[in-house]
Design a protein that fits this description.
This is VOC domain-containing protein. This protein has one domain (about 15-110): 2,3-Dihydroxybiphenyl 1,2-Dioxygenase, domain 1, CATH 3.10.180. It is built from 2 helices and 6 strands, in the order αβββαβββ. The protein has helices at about 15-25, 65-75; strands at about 30, 35-40, 60, 80-85, 90-95, 100-110.
């Protein structure tokens, strides 16, 4: 029925954030025209959480080893913008985009769905 998902990050400096995602994070991409890059993401999953407030959506990049990821990113000059915290569901941290926006990253400690067979 569905062939994928499309995530949008709104940015105050889209060109810088696109360059960071392409050059530093190394995500493969296509140019949809005039430098409008669209990136291939790793496999994904979706969770639905209850809320008492308004609806909102969040985007996290998942990794298998958060320390190894941050060691690799440090080699590219990327500093952690949100120190690692231990949550019951995973190890959570964040990296800054050039625009100043934070990009949450986590190492799941829960069963994952992104590698389930079709």
């Amino acid at each position: 029925m569905f062939v994928g998902s499309h995530v949008i990050i709104y940015s105050n400096d889209a060109d810088a954030d696109r360059a960071f995602i392409a050059d530093v994070l190394g995500f493969p991409h296509v140019d949809a025209g005039a430098g409008w890059l669209i990136f291939r993401l790793p496999p994904a999953e979706i969770a639905v959480h209850p809320t008492d407030g308004g609806e909102r959506h969040e985007f996290y990049l998942m990794c298998e080893d958060i320390e190894a990821l941050f060691d690799k990113l440090a080699g590219a000059g990327v500093e952690v913008s949100r120190d690692i915290t231990e949550e019951r569901w995973g190890r959570l941290a964040g990296i800054p985009l050039p625009s100043g926006a934070g990009l949450p990253v986590y190492q799941p400690l829960h069963p994952v769905a992104y590698n389930l067979p079709d």
